[in-house]
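assembly run, all chains below
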Amino acid sequence: MATIYDVAKAANVSPKTVSRVLNGDAPVGDKTRDAVNAAMAELGYVPSNAARMMRSNRSGLIGLITGAISATTENVQVAGLPELMLVQGIQQIIGLSGKTLMIADTGGRLDRVPGLIDTFVRHRVEGLIYVAEYHQKVQLPRLPDDVPMVLANCFDDVGTPAVLPDDRRGQHDLVKRLIAGGHERIAYLTLREDIVATGLRKAGYRDALNEARLPYDPALVQCGELASPEGETQVLWDAIDRMLRLPVPPTVFCCGNDRLALKVYGILRSRGMLVPSEISVAGYDNYRVIAETLYPPLTTVELPYTAMGVRAAQRLIGLISGEGREDPAPSIVAGPVQWRGSVTDRRPTNVSQLKIVREE
Amino acid sequence: MATIYDVAKAANVSPKTVSRVLNGDAPVGDKTRDAVNAAMAELGYVPSNAARMMRSNRSGLIGLITGAISATTENVQVAGLPELMLVQGIQQIIGLSGKTLMIADTGGRLDRVPGLIDTFVRHRVEGLIYVAEYHQKVQLPRLPDDVPMVLANCFDDVGTPAVLPDDRRGQHDLVKRLIAGGHERIAYLTLREDIVATGLRKAGYRDALNEARLPYDPALVQCGELASPEGETQVLWDAIDRMLRLPVPPTVFCCGNDRLALKVYGILRSRGMLVPSEISVAGYDNYRVIAETLYPPLTTVELPYTAMGVRAAQRLIGLISGEGREDPAPSIVAGPVQWRGSVTDRRPTNVSQLKIVREE
DNA sequence: TCAGTTTATGACACCGATGTCATGACACCG
DNA sequence: CGGTGTCATGACATCGGTGTCATAAACTGA
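ok done. output:
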C-alpha cells in the first residue's frame, strides 16, 4: 500500500507538502496541489489512520458496546429490535461530529464486556457508550480515567451519566388517554416483576387513575410475561380469563409490550372477541413491525429510542470536548402515545355522561 | 496515557523487554516479568494498537458494512431484524479468529458506502464484508486490490465471493411438506415481484408441485406486498378474497414472509376463519418475534442467517490467509422448515386416500 | 529601493510500538 | 579449561504520518 513518501516522490515534493494537501492546514501552490492530487490518485493512496493517530494522539473513534445485535436470537422476550434504533440515533450524532463509531457486540455474554473495553482502549477511543437491551441497572468494569462513558437504556451505582426512557410518564400518558376515551376498567398485563420498567409503568398507571379519581383495582393488574416463552401463552390466557369473568370486566387490555399485545390479539380472537369493537388492546414500545402490521394496528407508547441515542451521543460529545461541567443527573426521555385502531373510544358511562350533560 | 517507555522506566528494564512480556515472543526472566507486570498494572498501561500496527502492518481489523441497524426504522417492509443474525454469525467466527470486527452502518443511505469503505481502508482493515438487507444484487465501488471482500445476502456482476440463502430450495421444502400433509390447493401470497427472492421461491413452489404431479394454478399465486405499507392490507384482503371465492379454494396460504403472515392472520380472523382448523397459514423467514409469538405459532421457513454469517466470515478468513485459491462460486445456504401450529395436516383427498388404502 | 511581511516549501524530530542485531552471563561438553 | 550454544537483555532503526522551525521567494508599503 502506497505511503505518503511514495506520493511525495511521485509528485516531486516533500512528504510534508503532501500532508498539507491532505489536511489543508497550510497554503499550497495550485500547481503543486494538482501534482500531489494526481500522484495520490495514480497510486491509489489512502492515508494510514494508525500513523496519523500516533502523532496527533486523537483517534477519532467512539466505542459502542451493545448486546443488541445478538440479543435478538437468544432472548426474544425482551425489547429486542427497537434498541437498534438507539444505535441509529447514536450513529447520527457521531457521524455528524466527524468521528467514527466502532460497534462491538457482546454476543449476549456479559463476561465479554471487559475484553471489548480493552480492545477499545487499545484503539484509544475518545469515548464509550454502553447500550443495554432494556431499561436496567448494570455494573461495568472501571475505565481508564481519561475515557468518558455514557450509559444508554441503563444506569449504575456510581453515577455514570445515563440516558433512560420515561416509563412512568409513558404509561401515564397512555392510561390518561384511555380514560379520556371513556375507559374506566383498564386491565394491565405487566412485564416480569423484576424488570425496572414494570415498577415505573405501574406507578404511571396508578398516577393516571389517581388523577382521574378512578379506583385502583389490583385484580386488573397481573403479570403476563414469563422468563421463558413456554407456558407464557397459558399464563396470559388464565390472566385474561380471570379478568373477563370479573363482575365488571375491563374494556381495554394494556400490555407490557407489543409482543404481549400480539399474543393477546390471538387469545382474545380465539375466544371470539373482536378487537377493537368488543375489547380494546394497547401495547408498549411501538415496535413497528408488530404495531403497524397487526390488524387492526396497535395503539402503543413509543419507546423513544432514537431520541435516547441522540441524547446519549450528545452527552458523550459534551464530555469529550469537556466544555464546562456536565450535569451528572440521568437524562429521562419521554415518548409519545401512538394512537391506532386497536382502541375505541367508548360511550362514556353514567358518571361521565353526567359530566358531559353539565358541560353542555 | 502510559506508554511502554513509562512501564520500562518504572520496571527498570528496556522498552523491548516490556514488549517481550506483552507478546511472549522471547524468554524473559521470572523476576523481570513480575516487575514489568507490576509496573503495567500500577500505571494502568494498555498498549496502543496504532503504534503496534504501524510496525507490524497488520491491523487485526475486519470491516463490516451493513444497513441492518438503520434499515429497521425506515423500511419495515423488508426482512429487517433477522439479518442482524447474519452479523452475529460473522461476529462469532471473527471473534474466534482473534480479529476485531468493526461495524459501520450506512444509515440506510447507499451513497455513504464509499465513505465507509474509505474509513475502513484508512484503518487498514484486512478484509471487508458487505451485508445486504435482503437477497439482492448490488454494485459496490472497487476496493484496493489487497483488501479482500465477501458479500453476504447479496451478489454482484464482477464475481465477488458471495453467500446467499437458498430461497428456491426453502420454498420447495415447505410446499413439499404441505403436500405431504395432504394440502393440494396451496395459495402463495408472494413478496414484490422485483425482489430476487420472489422469483426463486416461486420456482421452488412450482418444483414441489411438479414433483408431486399437482397442477400449477396461476390464480393461486398473487403478490401480497406493496413498496409502501399503506394500502397493503387492502391488496392482501382482495387477493385473499379472490382466492377464497375460487371454485376450489386453497386450504393453506403461504406468505412471502412472516410479516405478511401476521397480516393474513388478522384478515382471516376478521373474516371469521379459524387458523389452523379452517385454514392453514405459513410464512417465510422464521422471524421469531412474530413466528413464535403468533397464536397459533407460525409454520415458516428459516432464513439461515446465522449460518450465512458464519460462512461469509469463514470465506473471508480464507481469503485473508490466502491458502490456496478460493472457489469463486457463491455459497448457497439452505434453512430448515419450522413446523408449528399454524398448519394442520388434512385428511388426505381421494387420490392420497387410495394410496393409503393400497399401503395398508 | 529596501526593510518587513506573507507565502510556499522542506528538513528534521517525534509519536509508541516492534524487528534486527549485538552482547554479557551461564551451562554444557569433550 | 576453552569453545560453543542458549538465555536474558538492551541499543537502535523503523513504520507513516504530523508538529516545529527554518528558509527562500514573492509581495507589500513608505
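Residues 3-5, 15-16, 18-19, 22-23, 25, 47-56 of chain A lie near DNA strand D (CB under 10 Å from a C1').

Chain A has three domains: 4-47, 61-165+306-329, 167-303+339-359.

not gonna interpret more than that til we talk
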